[in-house]
Design brief:
The complex is a heterodimer of chains A (464) and B (484). Chain A is mainly α and 464 residues long. Chain A contains 19 helices and two strands. Helix content of chain A is 75%, strand content 1%. Chain A is globular and about 65 Å long. Chain B has a two-stranded antiparallel ribbon with strand order 1-2. Chain B starts with a helix and ends with a helix. Chain B has helices spanning 2-20, 26-48, 77-96, 105-124, 128-137, 139-149, 154-182, 191-195, 201-218, 228-234, 237-262, 264-291, 295-315, 319-350, 366-379, 386-401, 403-428, 444-462, 465-482, and strands at residues 56-64, 69-75. In chain B, α3 (77-96) packs antiparallel against α4 (105-124), α3 (77-96) runs antiparallel to α11 and α9 (201-218) packs parallel to α12 (264-291). The chains are: A mainly alpha (464), B mainly alpha (484). Chain B: It is a multi-pass membrane protein.
Chain lengths: 464, 484
């Protein structure tokens, strides 16, 4: 609850700070606010389940942990913006303000207890993203992406609202606990309206986390948006979205598991196939990461579909590992493509990394570790993420799904390694890239976390 | 805690090499010192090791405590043998590079040492997930060794190798995760817990195939070998030595440590397919080896044929077969590293590995000829050399299992002699070729590599009991688990 209040207020403060002459105060202020939010987040730690806002929002250790992942990711991403100083038409105050507001939306959908809260949260998050996607106003692709995202997103929101309405019609309540008691009393005898409502609601939410076949917006939007906001979307929206889906299904709809698991299983498999196979054919690294984010949605969906005691941990750990690795991958991409852009060529393909290791060993190493982690190679956090996800599937007896996932992770290794090969084995002339000290710290910390969680995933458990 | 030291020491030496190996020539000295230190520790462990006692010098830390996954390792007879092999070969591999200067030296030697760390880890792990972790971790250094310092087509070929072997081990991961969740109560991934499982025959069949795929690709067993000849040929020789000398043994070790005891019923049901594939590989690999003109490729195929016999011996599920496989792992590691080194020596002087361009080298190089001949005879299993003991036991094991297959597998001795002697004849004898005109005999550092190898060839050949006694209690113990 506290970070929601805090960031709502501080977001406005950031907007007002924008009136000051010196823009240089914005970045430190935003970072400070994020740290404050992170600290306030833990006020409710170990208090058990606490309800706020007329029982519309619930807080427990799980939601707080998700909040923390979102906040840490946001901190890293904001730190990498470097005050938007090298973008001409940038409006840093607005960007930071919107980012903070969007986090409020994320917290709401992580801890919602009431479907209206879910809806409002998703809208806050989405509208912020529409704006940020189109923030590069003079760029045609950015504008196209924003429009596309907005149109598709509005449509998905409509479907979701329809679903919520049907659920209300069937159960007479927006409250998750009420819905849960209705479903468990009725069992499989619930009215068909509820089934339809659940499916529509799920479709709306799956759209937000870009699961196939609702993923068509993802590559264009990720590709067109400024890279920094792509990073924001692919980590924070995804983490929060999965927390929301998991909350909905685990909280209210376990009694009718046998109804929805087949649908979700089909979507899971489709998402894995689409994400991984199309990623193989990409030449643009950024677009590859877009498809890779689809494929990771697939792995996370495995955990949700299996809904075993392991799932909670699996989603948490996976989101964390995925977010850190994605942030460092995009972080390296931004530096490299900026350097290329200064030399007059826009290049976000794999070839942009050619010869990276020769003069920029740190960047090459950061890139390599993040790719290894996304590919799920042992001794990185990504491996344990996959491991816990696979574990939850086996616990539910979904071994066949595991086999699909494993085949697809073999495919994944192919496209992730292309970046490593470009950086280490191909010849190329990039030249020395200057990295701002703070930026460097973020990259090093992210890489260190990936390796640390890879060596000792037990640490994570101790933190919880 | 010796076990932990064995795992950590090479990694520390690798970091040291990276940190201090800036000046040319420094890195290799630090790496050699590190590898020798590891060897000394291994020898100390060996002298204190008691084969009759099962796992020793072990340690266990909680890793993911709530999930029953621990970081635990220990050494039994089978592990001890492979540790001896690894720690004995790595210093020699490092030493073998002294005549050659590699770009980015520090990274090169550091990768070799990281590889050693992971290999030792595989051989001592007593937790299934720890085993998997090291099994995969060993792949990454050798991939970079081959992909950065390899030949012309290195990027494409090593990528295939990497994907292929990783693909196989993912199936092992599936099997391990599955097995882990079958363990009762608070799950555990300790090997002993997995051995104790009572799986249904159908489940054992799946587990058998998942493990088989992982290890068969690693070794490789026919028909999963297509990555191997190209990779061995294109890799820089030290990487080839690591691949053929030690990494291949990870596959055989995995069969012995995981597949046999965890899926004995699967083995009883499907083992025959695996043996037929292995035996096919022996004959197939040998016949292709006869056709080769590139010496490195020829030895690559010979290695493929030899590992087929080891696999067949393991699948025969007999004491002879297993003991033979173990001693052959040792012998093959030594022979193949020696042979690859000799090819490297010839290549560094003549700039060619093609048999057509070579010939008449003997006339100028009495020392090289003798060492080459001894290693070669070891490889073709002449009695009193290292290869004989292993192949004899292996063939005996396969024969016990099925006489017909034993007879076909026996072709390896004849075919092996054909391709090896053909290579020797074409390269060393005959009229002196242009390439051999200015051939220098062995340098001191080259001899320093070959002498220990040759001593081992005779040691294993003349007194194999040293090694057989080391492994026998562990193997009998294992067979008791397998045959219930």
């Amino acid at each position: 609850m506290y970070p929601i209040v805090l960031l709502s207020v501080l977001g406005i403060v950031v907007l007002f700070l924008g009136f000051m002459k010196s823009k240089s105060v914005l970045l430190p202020a935003t970072l400070l606010f994020l740290v404050l939010a992170l600290a306030s987040n833990f006020i409710d730690w170990n208090q058990g389940k606490v309800l706020y806002f007329y029982e519309m929002l619930a807080v427990n250790n799980l939601t707080l942990a998700f909040n923390a992942i979102v906040l840490v990711s946001a901190f890293m991403i904001v730190a990498m913006t470097r005050g938007f100083q090298d973008q001409e038409e940038a409006q840093p105050a607005e960007y930071y303000g919107i980012m903070l507001f969007s986090l409020v939306g994320a917290f709401m959908i992580i801890g919602y207890e009431h479907l209206i809260m879910l809806f409002v949260g998703i809208e806050i998050l989405s509208v912020s993203m529409y704006i940020l996607t189109g923030s590069d106003k003079s760029n045609l692709r950015s504008n196209e992406a924003a429009l596309k995202y907005f149109l598709m997103g509005a449509f998905a929101t409509g479907i979701m609202l329809f679903g919520i309405a049907l659920l209300y019609g069937a159960t007479g309540s927006f409250n998750l606990t009420d819905i849960q008691s209705y479903v468990s009393i009725q069992g499989r005898g619930v009215s068909y309206i509820l089934y339809a409502g659940l499916l529509l609601l799920l479709i709306g939410m799956l759209f937000k986390v870009s699961a196939a076949p609702f993923h068509f917006w993802t590559p264009d939007v990720y590709d067109g948006a400024p890279t920094i906001f792509t990073t924001f979307m692919s980590t924070i929206v995804k983490t929060a979205g999965f927390a929301a889906i998991f909350r909905l299904l685990s909280h209210s709809f376990t009694p009718i598991y046998s109804f929805w698991w087949i649908t979700l299983a089909a979507i899971t498999v489709l998402t894995l196939l689409v994400g991984n196979i199309i990623a193989v054919y990409q030449n643009s690294f950024k677009r590859m990461l877009a498809y890779s984010s689809i494929s990771h949605a697939g792995y996370l969906l495995i955990a949700v579909t299996s809904l075993s005691p392991q799932t909670e941990n699996a989603i948490l750990f996976y989101s964390l590992a995925y977010s850190i690795a994605t942030i460092s991958a995009f972080g390296v991409l931004m530096l490299v493509s900026k350097k290329k852009a200064l030399e007059g060529q826009v290049d976000e393909s794999y070839a942009a990394f050619n010869g990276l290791a020769a003069q920029n060993p740190l960047l090459a190493f950061v890139l390599a570790v993040s790719m290894l982690s996304l590919a799920g190679i042992p001794l990185t956090a990504g491996f344990w993420g996959k491991f816990f996800v696979f574990g939850s599937a086996v616990e539910r007896g979904l071994v066949w799904m595991l086999v699909v996932a494993v085949l697809m992770s073999a495919v994944g290794i192919y496209y992730y390694f292309r970046a490593i090969i470009a950086a280490y084995l191909k010849e190329g002339d990039i030249g020395k890239i200057r990295i701002a000290p703070f930026y460097r710290i973020i990259l090093v910390v992210a890489t260190a976390m990936t390796i640390l969680f890879g060596l000792a995933p037990g640490i994570f458990e101790k933190l919880l | 805690m010796y076990t932990l030291l064995l795992i950590v020491l090479p990694a520390l030496a690798a970091l040291l090499t990276l940190g201090l190996g800036g000046r040319p020539g420094h890195a290799r000295q630090i790496a050699l010192a590190g590898a020798l230190a590891e060897l000394i520790v291994a020898v100390v462990v060996w002298t204190q090791f008691d084969p009759a006692q099962g796992f020793q010098f072990g340690f266990a830390f909680d890793w993911i405590a709530s999930a029953g996954i621990s970081f635990s390792a220990g050494i039994d007879g089978i592990s001890m043998l492979l540790i001896v092999l690894t720690t004995f070969l790595v210093p020699l591999i490092v030493l073998s590079t002294f005549g050659h200067s590699y770009s980015k030296e520090a990274s090169f030697y550091a990768l070799i040492l990281f590889m050693e760390s992971a290999l030792v880890g595989v051989f001592v792990a007593t937790d299934a997930f720890l085993f998997y972790l090291f099994f995969e971790a060993a792949l990454i250094p050798v991939y970079f060794l081959a992909a950065i310092w390899g030949g012309e087509n290195r990027i494409r070929i090593t990528f295939k190798f990497f994907l292929y072997t990783l693909f196989g081990s993912l199936f092992m991961l599936v099997a391990l995760v599955y097995l882990y969740f079958q363990t009762p109560g608070q799950h555990s991934s300790a090997l002993t817990a997995l051995y104790a499982l009572n799986l249904s025959p159908a489940a054992q069949g799946w587990v058998f195939w998942a493990f088989f795929l992982a290890f068969a690709i690693k070794m490789p067993v026919f028909p999963f070998h297509t990555w191997q000849p190209d990779t061995y040929t294109e890799s820089p020789t030290p990487a080839t030595m690591l691949l053929a000398g030690i990494m291949l043994k990870m596959g055989v070790y995995g069969l012995i440590r995981l597949l046999l005891p965890i899926a004995p019923v699967g083995l009883a049901e499907w083992g025959w397919v695996a043996i037929v594939l292995s035996v096919t590989g022996i004959v197939y690999g040998s016949i292709i080896a006869i056709q080769q003109r590139d010496m490195k490729r020829l030895i690559a195929y010979s290695s493929f044929a030899h590992v087929g016999l080891m696999a067949a011996g393991v699948f025969s599920n007999t004491l002879n077969g297993l003991q033979g496989a173990l001693i052959q792992m040792l012998a093959h590691g030594i022979n193949v590293v020696g042979l690859f080194f000799i090819v490297e020596i010839i290549f560094s002087r003549t700039k060619t590995r093609y048999l057509d361009h070579l010939g008449g080298i003997t006339q100028r190089t009495p020392h090289l000829t003798v060492y080459f001949m001894i290693l070669l005879l070891g490889s073709v299993a002449l009695p009193l050399t290292s290869g004989f003991v292993g192949e004899f036991l292996l063939l005996a094991g396969v024969f016990e299992h099925n006489p017909w297959l034993g007879a076909v597998a026996g072709l390896t001795i004849i075919l092996g002699a054909v391709y090896m002697l053909r290579m020797f004849q074409k390269a060393m004898f005959g009229p002196r070729s242009q390439a051999a005109e200015t051939f220098r005999d062995l340098s001191l550092s080259e001899r320093a590599v070959l002498v220990p190898l040759v001593i081992m060839v005779f040691w294993i050949g003349l007194y194999p009991a040293t090694f057989l006694k080391l492994t026998e209690p562990a193997v009998s113990q294992l067979l008791r688990i397998v045959n219930g």
